[in-house]
Write a structure and sequence with these properties.
Blueprint (H helix, E strand, L loop, with lengths): L2 E5 L4 H12 L3 E6 L13 E5 L7 H5 L5 E6 L14 H24 L3 E10 L12 H20 L6 E5 L20 H19 L4 E2 L3 H8 L4 H11 L1 H4 L4
Parallel strand pairs: 1-2, 1-4, 2-3, 4-5, 5-6, 6-7
Helix pairs in contact: 1-5, 3-4
Length: 247
């Protein structure tokens, strides 16, 4: 049975990724600080490992079962609003969780031979990299930094034939959107949208796609980009209330 490791897969979009994995008879390990509200009974081919993502170390890696065919680095937090109101400690925590700990996790997995040759690594970046995101400057910075790491990691791993995919999802109707002044949407239509993005992401990673745009908005931003000076003004107006202004 092939094995997948997902960080932060107990809720939202990546909970759906977990469902897909176990349905396709992968053994799934999930690293997460929360057990979530949806996995009341774990399938036999799924293992939840409680992990404080800001404290990744060799002990955590030793708990993992064998080596993996797919590793998906997804877990993260957000910090939105007026940039001037966010102090250094809050920003450091965001950067550590979103970026540095994933870099350290990959280093530990590789050094302990927990990622197989010919394996696939997926990095969940953000469609915010393709347009200004004034409501969450440090969040955008953390995703840019992570993306740059994966770009270089891809070259570093050529001799091991390990593929690296970068995923650019547009915000889905999950709890994540509450950070950007949007409402979480429930219902069948929203659920179908989330499931489709999960399918497109997993399929793209398995097929060794370098860059994955799993939804219509991210595809448009990637292939039909607007000039940056236009996006600067559009996004500033969109988030005018949340970001305030400089006097």
């Amino acid at each position: 049975m092939k094995k997948i490791l997902i960080t932060g897969g107990m809720s939202g979009l990546w909970k759906e990724m977990g469902y897909l994995a176990v349905q396709q008879w992968y053994h799934l390990d999930i690293l997460d600080i929360s057990e979530g509200e949806i996995w009341t009974t774990l399938p036999s081919n799924m293992n939840y490992i409680h992990c404080d993502i800001s404290q990744i170390d060799t002990t955590t890696v030793e708990k993992l079962s064998g080596s993996y065919d797919i590793v998906i680095c997804n877990a993260g937090i957000s910090l939105s609003g007026n940039f001037l109101e966010h102090d250094l400690q809050a920003n450091k925590k965001l950067m550590q969780i979103n970026t540095l700990w994933h870099i350290e996790l990959i280093r530990l997995l590789l050094s302990q031979s927990k990622i197989k040759k010919w394996a696939h690594i997926g990095c969940i970046a953000s469609a915010s990299e393709m347009l200004p995101f004034p409501v969450a400057l440090w969040y955008a910075a953390s995703k840019w930094a992570l993306r740059s790491f994966w770009d270089s990691l891809r070259s570093y791993l050529i001799s091991r034939q390990i593929s690296v995919s970068i995923v650019y999802p547009w915000p889905m109707p999950t709890a994540h959107v509450k950070y950007y002044g949007k409402q979480v949407v429930h219902g069948k239509t929203a659920q179908n949208k989330i499931q489709k993005v999960a399918r497109n992401t997993l399929k793209g990673i398995i097929k060794w796609r370098r860059n994955i745009y799993p939804d219509p908005v991210s595809k448009v931003l990637a292939y039909l980009p607007l000039p940056r000076f236009v996006l600067d003004r559009v996004m500033s107006r969109v988030y005018r209330e949340e970001i305030g202004g400089l006097s």
